[in-house]
Design brief:
The chain is an alpha+beta fold. The chain folds into two domains: 157 residues, Regulatory protein AraC (Jelly Rolls); 115 residues, Orthogonal Bundle (Arc Repressor Mutant, subunit A). Helices cover 49% and strands 19% of the residues. It has eleven helices and nine strands.
Amino acid sequence: MVNLLYRTPHVHKDFEVCLLLEGTVCLLSRGREYTYEKGSLWVINPFTSHELIAEQPALILSLQISPAFFAAVFPQIENMEFSLDAPARDGQDPDIRASLARMLLDIASAYFHPGDYSALRCAGLICLFFEKLPMYLPCARISEKERQLSATRAQRVRKISSYIDSHYSEKLLLTDMARELGLTMSYLSHFFKSVFGMSFQSYVMKMRCEKARQLLLLTDFSLLDISIACGFSDIKYFNQGFRRQFGCSPRQYRQHFEHEELSQQQKSMLSTQDFLSPAASRVTLEKYLSSDPGGSR
């Protein structure tokens, strides 16, 4: 369970099921934008790059589950892809949506209330959840050849993400990464945009600006020191990129929060995302288990 304002573009090797408990979230994936309201439920397929943005802190219940979890009983799930498009209002069954939301909360409750048989309950509920999921979300089956291509693609995405995570604070060139991965620059440029929905330069800029935002909120480092620490070539480039992403200069952003009394947890949440502790998650879950989590979309 996570309170979120912003999450940089990233990938998971698992299915990620999300239920929006509070707030509104904009999800960017493969060059498209999706907006989800309170009560929405969506699934991100393995190794699909996505970015999350919320104007106000959004509370999300998230379940990440590997396709390998189903290998013994339903291996064909590896050949399934769920759509990020919400079902049309006139074509959806609100009872199914509410039932899925309730099941996801029950899975979380079993996970956060460990007992002798809670693992069995979790596993059973997850299987039942995924059995019902295609009744709500559009789903396509891909061929084995497509799946193998997807696996190769995913391995490359992991390497790209890891390389950028390790080198964003340095001078980072597409030519250097192409050489590291044994690819031509033109191929890597095209591949990068098809996977992340943006150019290599835009992706690196987003990551650097988010790292800078964290340092602006949580340290008293000078703007120049932050610029250098986050890999910007000069302070002017830092200012331009930050303003483009957040709508104000780094100095203005820091001043906006400078005189506010923020707890450490709030500061952490404002910098990126704040994962609730198991104890806090249990308390929060009780609130939603006693209400109607799927009542609005």
